[in-house]
Design brief:
Length: about 130
């Protein structure tokens, strides 16, 4: 048992980026609270993926269930967003690992939409007579 297993999740905040950008590798992607995807990072932090971050990741690494983002290096930095005419600081995600080709991204998206493929039947699946 490790006590860190019982610690609260440490989400990246703007304060964490005050000294400069943070680079890390995505180690897992899952669903967080409020039905928003999260990415677990190699440095122990977690980042909530908003619509803009997801769009950036999908454009770079293709669509799917998020497993295609695992192993990719990203950079988190402070940017700005304008909402209702007011500009405020916001966290921005930027891909660092090379993007996948358009063909690979399209294949990933098609596979994600088609769902799991049924297992192929093998000659080895026949019942053994005893």
């Amino acid at each position: 048992m490790r006590m860190s297993d019982y610690a609260a999740t440490r989400f990246v905040t703007l304060a964490d980026l005050a000294e400069g950008p943070m680079r890390a590798i995505i180690t897992a992607v899952g669903m967080g609270d409020f039905e928003r995807p999260i990415a677990v990072l190699s440095n122990g932090y977690t980042v909530s993926l908003n619509k803009t971050a997801i769009r950036v990741l999908v454009e770079a690494y293709g669509d799917g269930d998020g497993t295609n983002f695992v192993g990719k290096e990203i950079e988190l930095l402070v940017g700005e967003v304008t909402m209702k005419g007011k500009t405020t600081p916001a966290m921005r995600l930027q891909p660092i690992s090379p993007p996948v080709s358009a063909a690979t991204a399209a294949a990933t998206a098609a596979a994600a939409k088609s769902g799991p493929k049924p297992a192929a039947k093998s000659d080895m699946d026949d019942a053994l007579p005893f």
